[in-house]
Amino acid sequence: MKIKHFLLTAAFIMQGAHASEFAILPLSKLVDAALKHQPSVAISYYETEKKKSDLEATRASLYPTLDLSSGINNNRKESSGDERNIE
């Protein structure tokens, strides 16, 4: 049992030393690679983006709205003489 424990510990230490030899990549490059090479990651990403836009649309419907309308009304009434009534 002690030998197994020792070997596992040694393997983790060696793996850690080996991992430090690789270049450190920025998260954005790792995400881009995952989106390009893993369809399930891309599907999850686009579903999340769609839900975000749906949420924004739902929030927008809660904001107050402003409606504008205008009109012109020009009624003339015939009267005697030179007098004209315009309303």
From TrEMBL:
It comes from the Bacteria. One of its GO terms (molecular function) is efflux transmembrane transporter activity. Residues 75-87 have a biased composition (Basic and acidic residues). The keyword Signal applies. Keywords: Signal. Residues 1-19 form the signal peptide. This is TolC family protein. It comes from Salmonella diarizonae.
